[in-house]
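Bumping with the actual sequence this time:
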Amino acid sequence: MMNESVRQLCKFAVVGCLNTFIDWVVYFTVIKIFPIDSIFFYTAVKGFSYFCGIVNSFFLNRCWTFKTSPEENEKYRFLKFTVVNALGLGINSTSLYVLLHYYDSKIITLFLATAISFGFNFILSKLWVFRKSKMVPKTTGG
């Protein structure tokens, strides 16, 4: 039987694939509906479509991957999740840039950069964003 962290890692990967699908569907749908030929427009739409993937990722990872319940301050948790994903995107882009100087294969560099940012996102999501608070038993006065 797989331990809980491995199970969460696998679920996190499935959610990531679904997020990419949502990102791409939103992106291509919007540019099809609004055929504006502008790099600025394409970039703005990509930011929007990526954010749609983040929203999906937040809810699926909270409910399915890490099985945490909504908290009183759920907006703060979502903000932490967004920060982790923004940092992960930066790590992915930086890793890709650095690795392209060492490897000729764009596929290998893409895979390695994705693996690095995936690991970063998973660890911070598990240990910081969706960490289950420890229940402290109440003591009764005596």
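The tokens above came from a reply further down the thread. Residues 1-67 form one domain.
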